[in-house]
Specification:
The structure holds two protein chains of two kinds. Chain A is of the alpha/beta class. Helix content of chain A is 40%, strand content 15%. The chains are: A alpha/beta, B alpha+beta. Bound molecules: FE2/S2 (inorganic) cluster (2 copies). The site of one FE2/S2 (inorganic) cluster has 11 residues of chain B, from loops.
Chain lengths: 121, 239
């Protein structure tokens, strides 16, 4: 792994303001830490955003709002999801392991770059 | 088409040499332009990408070290480009109810911190990539993989490892059940299995053998002690 600096931010605005060219945000770490170990991601600075983003699931007028830091496990146990969108819970349960689901955030689950075979050639 | 080794029309030959040409052109142009640091960064990123090139760079840097003092400052700068210096961070982590104050390299995973710095070697390293579950520990009561958790991210949290389960000489019921039900053979996966099993029971995923197997699927056992593991979990869940 390439050495990097590590900071935490309390809110999204500060996290975005602190981002420079070779900075990466880290949430659960299940994706990025793996990529860093394989020298695929080589950030110079890491910003821990676990404390910067919402980890709540809320019912809104049009549906449900899932915070970016909601861990995968919560998606499988939350009553709002289970009663209105049970397929979401089923889909999450079909992936990864309980340990990973306890770590992985919804935000990154939706936009991650998993260690695809192409990286390892 | 003739695929003899010397044939430049060989698709592979063409692709590789073209890639190398482009790389050299890119590095040279970056280095010659004012953007020296960027060029060096590209070289370093390219060269630190494998163990072999790391050894090559180390060798080259060792040779540089023989130069007189006046050149040493330049050497330091160049070295920092090729091998960026490590960065450390002070942390306080509660492990098994004991607060540990450490200054860790930011790259240290919780697994390496436990095993290499704190001599808590009960937690095992299987794959180091989040695939086997041997490194499972609890953070704030939830099972997670310590090989994918940076120590800095565990700061201020409550970590429980296999060493923290027993109460003095009295084993945790799950540890006892693993012994009684033959839940292991070589024992390498066992600390991770037990930590995961404790959480599995706490989460209440023990209604059927299929459910137990599904919720223990993050822990692999090369010895195939799965039936004993399921039995141990049923035993503890029934209490
Ligand atoms: S060592 Fe962490 S999952 Fe294999
Ligand atoms: S007991 Fe040997 S790997 Fe599980």
């Amino acid at each position: 792994m390439r050495p990097f600096s590590f900071t935490k931010t309390e809110n999204a605005a500060k996290a975005v303001a602190a981002k420079k060219e070779l900075t990466q945000f880290v949430a659960g770490g299940t994706n990025l830490v793996d990529l860093m170990k394989k020298h695929i991601a080589q950030p110079e600075a890491l910003i821990d955003v676990t404390g910067s983003l919402s980890d709540k699931i809320e019912t809104t007028a049009n549906g449900i709002r899932i915070g970016a830091m909601v861990r995968n496990t919560l998606l499988t146990t939350d009553n709002q999801i289970l009663s209105k969108y049970p397929l979401v819970a089923k889909a999450v349960l079909a992936g990864a392991s309980p340990q990973i689901r306890n770590m992985a955030s919804t935000g990154v689950t939706c936009c991650n770059a998993p260690a695809a075979l192409i990286f390892m050639i | 088409m003739n695929y003899s080794p010397a044939n430049p029309l060989r698709p592979h030959f063409f692709v590789v040499s073209r890639f190398k040409q482009l790389l050299v052109i890119f590095i040279v142009s970056k280095t010659l332009s004012k953007d020296l640091s960027k060029g060096l960064y590209v070289i370093s990123a390219y060269m630190t990408s494998s163990r072999r090139s790391f050894i090559k760079i180390s060798g080259a840097l060792a040779a540089l070290a023989a130069l007189p003092k006046s050149v040493k400052a330049l050497y330091q700068d160049v070295k920092n480009f090729f091998v960026p210096p490590k960065q450390t961070i002070p942390l306080t982590i509660n492990i098994n109810k004991t607060p540990y104050r450490v200054t860790a390299d930011t790259r240290t995973t919780l697994l390496d911190l436990l095993r290499e710095e704190l001599q808590l070697t009960g937690t095992k390293k299987g794959c180091d990539h989040g695939q086997c579950g041997a490194c499972t520990v609890h953070i704030n009561g939830e099972r997670v993989l310590s090989c994918l958790t940076l120590s800095a991210q565990a700061a201020g949290k409550e970590v429980t490892t296999i060493e923290g389960l027993a109460n003095g000489d009295k084993l945790h019921p799950m540890q006892q059940a693993f012994i009684e039900c033959d839940g292991f053979q070589c024992g390498y996966c066992t600390p991770g299995q037990i930590m995961s099993a404790v959480a599995c029971v706490k989460e209440g995923h023990t209604k059927s053998v299929a459910e137990i197997k599904e919720f223990m699927s993050g822990n692999l056992c090369r010895c195939g002690a799965y039936n004993g593991i399921v039995e141990s979990i049923q035993k503890v869940a029934a209490v």
